[in-house]
Task: inverse folding
């Protein structure tokens, strides 16, 4: 029970971090129809900016400045590069962000080196939040969950209750009509792209010290968040939310479980003959399978429900 | 009309003859051992890039996981080679790439069934997931994949056939060249088949293709299977060339590499990926020996291509040829003016590039190689990264070069488009 609860909490906090990343990605995708391949790179930039700022003026200012900087950079990229590539169609945009992800990781190495940087959890949060039976739950994990939930609430309120949100939502579905009504749609897409990148940056500030801040962090999360948005359904925020929690919990549980198929067969009363025990596939434990589980889930979802869990349009 | 067709046909024979001649003559022009190894790598990369362009260029399918087919093909090939060495499979070395191709074909049939269910972004995402899946499994099943170390083989076994043992690199090169020529011809022939034509239609307008009675998904699936076969052949060639296959052959980096190379070469033209493969191998093998920042340059070149030259090297080459032809009609003087413009543009670009390279190399020296001291050798100069002057020099070169390039480019584009516009008016 203790194990289950703690792992569930860890999985949920990881899943919420994934959601912070996939929320920005989903917004950008639904607005511009292009998957931002450099999204995880903006997450990495957020973490590095936060490291640089927090080592000078402290963590709390960094929590606000680093996402702003990341968002600004994203807006600049959209304004000066993506908009020019757009004429050549979506393929050009996708390839551009793909190249950008290459460039950003190299630039980060150029400035901060290849080794992980010491980006610590702030002292005020470096303590246990509560003790469950005998395991302590770190306060920073709780803070992570809190920020993610606040962000979810903020996005919801912004999109549903404000005028800007109304324009954004309308621009998603009827860009020409919105333009005819006198709104600057290119500027709205710049804002959305910058905003999405800022969300990724915020996730970087929060995730960078909960995990490790290093040049490989973008590649490690990059393909997982694509699994999240595809499983959730391309363009669906609610789907991304469900899928990120699902994958977060699935991955956290699987790395801690040491069962194998052979053990499962044993539980059903199948005798482990030597020939059976030799089978590599049967001996794999769930922990060993953990890295591929999200991708297996992706394949499974696409087989059963090609649109993704809550997707509305065919990809 | 008929004369025209005859001329076209003769031109085609000339083109293919020249291609074969280049393949035959390349090792004579670059006989050094290192060059021969690079040429062999270029050959395998060319088959790979052409097979990739069947998907991206002709079918509009952006795949992030094409290395899955070439890599798994390479594994099948190396296992076939090892079986042949052990004497349990009667397979000559020259046909090992065919085993690789069949391996690629098999996995194309299996994985393609899933990935071609969707087009566009969905297809790209599934291939991305698949490459992760296969790469992770490669480390999970060391029996077939050989774990971290990979599977090694030996291409020299049995008695030499007609004096060919495939021991020396030159013999491997000619084997690769022969397979490259056959595969190029086969893939070119594919673009002329009804399937190849319908594939273009499916790329441009799937609804219409469906309306006239073709199932877009089926067309995509068949193409992917064929493309996986050729990718497998390239994997088999790579297995013979290196005599080792490791998990990185199926990895995401390899898949990204072929995408970058094909696009840089130009996906809109059949021969574009051939140029791209040459450029790609050059950038990854030669450039990485010169500088640690080669991935930065590769990424930057790619992004500049996407922004300014979406036709790739092939598009630039054809544009240049068209320009020369146009200039030729206006007389030699007009042609010379055009070439002078291009030379100025090139010089400005080179200056900007030199500035950027200087800046990047000095930054690398400071952040990553600072243990080796502060001096860096570039373009025959020794620069001290602690001093201010080199930084100013680099910044000045970068600013002057890029400023001049942008100004010249604007004026050049006006001139370039003027004759074409005049022609349209006449028509």
Result:
């Amino acid at each position: 029970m203790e194990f289950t609860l703690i792992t569930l909490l860890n999985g949920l906090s990881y899943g919420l971090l994934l959601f912070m990343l996939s929320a920005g990605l989903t917004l950008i995708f639904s607005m511009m129809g292009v998957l931002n391949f450099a999204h995880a790179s903006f997450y990495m930039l957020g973490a590095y900016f936060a490291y640089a700022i927090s080592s000078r003026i402290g963590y709390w200012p960094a929590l606000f400045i680093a996402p702003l900087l990341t968002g600004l950079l994203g807006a600049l990229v959209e304004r000066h590069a993506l908009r020019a590539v757009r004429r050549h169609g979506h393929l050009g945009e996708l390839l551009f962000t793909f190249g950008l992800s290459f460039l950003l990781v190299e630039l980060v190495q150029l400035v901060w080196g290849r080794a992980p940087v010491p980006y610590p959890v702030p002292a005020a949060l470096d303590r246990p939040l509560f003790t469950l039976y005998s395991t302590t739950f770190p306060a920073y994990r709780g803070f992570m969950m809190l920020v993610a939930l606040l962000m979810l609430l903020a996005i919801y309120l912004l999109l549903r209750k404000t005028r800007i949100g109304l324009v954004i939502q309308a621009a998603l579905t009827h860009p020409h009509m919105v333009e005819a009504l006198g709104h600057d749609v290119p500027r709205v897409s710049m804002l959305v792209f910058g905003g999405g990148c800022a969300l990724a940056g915020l996730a970087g500030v929060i995730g960078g010290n909960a995990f490790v801040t290093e040049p490989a962090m973008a590649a490690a999360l990059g393909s997982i968040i694509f699994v999240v948005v595809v499983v959730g359904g391309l363009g669906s925020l609610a789907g991304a939310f469900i899928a990120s929690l699902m994958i977060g919990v699935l991955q956290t549980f699987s790395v801690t479980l040491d069962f194998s198929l052979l053990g499962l067969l044993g539980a059903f009363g199948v005798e482990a003959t030597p020939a059976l025990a030799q089978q590599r596939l049967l001996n794999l434990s769930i922990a060993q399978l953990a890295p591929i589980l999200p991708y297996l889930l992706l394949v499974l979802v696409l087989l059963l429900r090609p649109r993704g869990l809550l997707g509305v349009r065919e990809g | 009309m008929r004369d025209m067709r005859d001329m076209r046909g003769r031109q085609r024979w000339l083109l293919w003859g020249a291609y074969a001649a280049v393949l035959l003559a390349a090792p004579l022009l670059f006989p050094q051992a290192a060059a021969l190894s690079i040429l062999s790598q270029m050959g395998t990369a060319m088959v790979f890039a052409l097979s990739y362009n069947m998907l991206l260029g002709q079918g509009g399918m952006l795949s992030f996981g094409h290395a899955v087919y070439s890599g798994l093909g390479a594994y099948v090939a190396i296992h076939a080679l090892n079986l042949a060495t052990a004497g349990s499979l009667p397979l000559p070395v020259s046909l090992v790439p065919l085993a690789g191709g069949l391996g690629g074909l098999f996995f194309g049939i299996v994985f393609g069934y899933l990935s071609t269910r969707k087009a566009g972004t969905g297809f790209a995402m599934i291939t991305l997931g698949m490459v992760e899946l296969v790469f992770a499994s490669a480390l999970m099943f060391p029996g077939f994949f050989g774990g971290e170390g990979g599977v090694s083989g030996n291409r020299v076994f049995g008695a030499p056939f007609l004096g060919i043992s495939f021991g020396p690199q030159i013999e491997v090169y000619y084997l690769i060249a022969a397979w490259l020529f056959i595969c190029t011809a086969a893939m070119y022939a594919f673009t002329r088949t009804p399937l190849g034509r319908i594939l273009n239609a499916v790329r441009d307008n799937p609804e219409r293709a469906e309306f006239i009675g073709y199932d877009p998904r089926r067309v995509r699936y068949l193409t992917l299977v064929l493309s996986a076969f050729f990718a497998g052949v390239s994997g088999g060639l790579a297995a013979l060339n290196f005599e080792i296959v490791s998990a990185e052959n199926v990895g995401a980096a390899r898949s990204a590499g072929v995408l970058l190379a094909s696009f840089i070469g130009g996906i809109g033209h059949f021969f574009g990926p051939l140029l791209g493969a040459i450029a790609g191998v050059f950038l990854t093998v030669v450039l990485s020996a010169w500088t640690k920042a080669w991935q930065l340059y590769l990424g930057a070149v790619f992004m500049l291509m996407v922004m300014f030259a979406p036709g790739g090297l092939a598009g630039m080459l054809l544009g240049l040829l068209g320009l020369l032809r146009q200039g030729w009609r206006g007389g030699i003087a007009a042609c010379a003016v055009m070439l002078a413009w291009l030379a100025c543009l090139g010089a400005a670009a080179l200056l900007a590039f030199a500035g950027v390279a200087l800046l990047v190399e000095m930054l690398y020296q400071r952040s990553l190689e600072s243990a080796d001291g502060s001096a860096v050798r570039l373009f025959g100069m020794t620069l001290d990264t602690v001093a201010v002057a080199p930084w100013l020099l680099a910044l000045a070169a970068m600013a002057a070069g890029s400023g001049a390039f942008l100004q010249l480019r604007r004026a050049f584009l006006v001139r370039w488009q003027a004759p074409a516009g005049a022609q349209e008016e006449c028509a």
Q: What stands out?
A: Residues 420-427 of chain B have pLDDT under 50 and may be disordered.
